[in-house]
């Protein structure tokens, strides 16, 4: 297993690469190839740390770290053709609990009849002042109303408290979070807008990981996470990895049985000659044919500025482990089935 150097870890402090703002006009992305094929990148602009939801109106909505300021929102009917619809916040409504902080790694959910957007807020290197906040809206395209911070690193005593992920289990609501200082979880209130009174945090995974996402399948909980450096252009070493458990609360083990608390992991997506630094996946979406799809970001070596949006099918081997073909991003593939 690759050792994560201290210098890389420090570089990734409260990382979200918010310094890649692009004021170019957003456009729906044309696709090349045959009618039933798509090509990566799905959206050829910087959209790091994607999160996705199928909304009540039947459309998919995707949100990302604010390389487009105030958290960009895109809309699609088929996961391939996307239209920019606006931002979650404006300059007037933008969260303020971390002065001069960037809005990174959102996580979109539908809770109790409203859209709930968790977000990270940090300045680069602010490991003890960064934190996680929450905003709500009646519509997936917003506008979102900020409900303030859930907690800061120093309040939770977890350094580098970013990268939120929400999940429900047995009627209870939980938030997972963390970035290269351990992955943690804690129970939330019934509305998901505050930490439950008296709740205690629990560590789930070790210091190799950030960007948690958990997916239930066939009696297992699969913890997807990212390792390595996300934001060094063509030198980025980011990879998407996983472990699994029969309980939401762990232990999460890799294919060899090594615990993710001890930084064990199994590789899902690495690099190839076209895309490097690939990781921080979205929620898994199933199409009408029963195929599972995931978004994630990567660096296109042909255009290495920012981190573009990539899409691939997640498949499952005979032992139930997730993989993508060639363990790296596709250049082109058959489209998801929604007809």
Automatic annotation (TrEMBL):
Annotated site, Important for catalytic activity, responsible for pKa modulation of the active site Glu and correct orientation of both the proton donor and substrate, chain positions: 163
Pfam family, one: Glyco_hydro_43
Coiled coil: none
Biological pathway: Glycan metabolism; L-arabinan degradation
Active-site residues, Swiss-Prot/TrEMBL: 49, 210
CDD domains recorded: GH43_ABN-like
One record GO biological process: arabinan catabolic process
Positions of region (Disordered): 21-40
Keyword set, alphabetical order: Glycosidase, Hydrolase
GO molecular function, one term: arabinan endo-1,5-alpha-L-arabinosidase activity
Residues of the site described as Important for substrate recognition: 280
Domain of life: Bacteria
Family classification: Belongs to the glycosyl hydrolase 43 family.
PANTHER family: ARABINAN ENDO-1,5-ALPHA-L-ARABINOSIDASE, ARABINAN ENDO-1,5-ALPHA-L-ARABINOSIDASE A-RELATED
Protein name per Swiss-Prot or TrEMBL: Arabinan endo-1,5-alpha-L-arabinosidase
Taxonomic source organism: Dysgonomonas macrotermitis
């Amino acid at each position: 297993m690759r050792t994560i150097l201290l210098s890389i870890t420090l570089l990734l402090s409260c990382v979200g690469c918010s310094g890649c703002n692009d004021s170019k006009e957003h456009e729906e992305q044309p696709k090349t190839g045959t009618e039933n094929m798509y090509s990566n990148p799905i959206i050829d602009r910087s959209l790091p740390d994607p999160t996705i939801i199928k909304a009540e109106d039947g459309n998919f909505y995707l949100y990302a770290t604010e390389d487009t300021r105030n958290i960009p929102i895109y809309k699609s009917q088929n996961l391939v053709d996307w239209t920019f619809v606006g931002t979650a916040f404006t300059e007037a409504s933008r969260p303020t609990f971390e002065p001069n902080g960037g809005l990174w790694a959102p996580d979109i959910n539908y809770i109790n009849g409203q859209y709930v957007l968790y977000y990270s807020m940090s300045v680069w290197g602010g490991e003890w002042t960064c934190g996680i906040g929450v905003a709500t809206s009646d519509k997936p395209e917003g506008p979102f109303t900020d409900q303030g911070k859930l907690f800061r690193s120093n309040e939770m005593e977890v350094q580098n408290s970013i990268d939120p992920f929400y999940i429900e289990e047995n009627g209870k609501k939980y938030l997972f979070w963390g970035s290269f200082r351990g992955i943690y979880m804690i129970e939330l209130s019934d509305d998901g807008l505050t930490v439950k009174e008296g709740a205690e945090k629990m560590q789930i995974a070790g210091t190799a990981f950030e960007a948690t996402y958990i997916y239930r399948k066939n009696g297992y909980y699969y913890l997807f996470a990212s390792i390595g450096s996300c934001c060094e252009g063509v030198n980025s070493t980011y990879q998407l990895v996983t472990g699994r458990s029969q309980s939401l609360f762990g232990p999460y083990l890799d294919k060899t049985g090594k615990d993710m608390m001890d930084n064990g992991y199994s590789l899902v997506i690495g690099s190839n000659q076209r895309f490097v630094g690939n990781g921080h996946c979205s929620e898994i979406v199933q199409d009408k044919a029963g195929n599972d799809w995931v978004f994630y970001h990567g660096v296109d070596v042909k255009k290495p500025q920012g981190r573009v949006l990539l899409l691939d099918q997640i498949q499952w081997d005979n032992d139930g482990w997730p993989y993508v073909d060639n363990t790296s991003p596709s250049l082109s593939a058959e489209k998801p089935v929604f007809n």
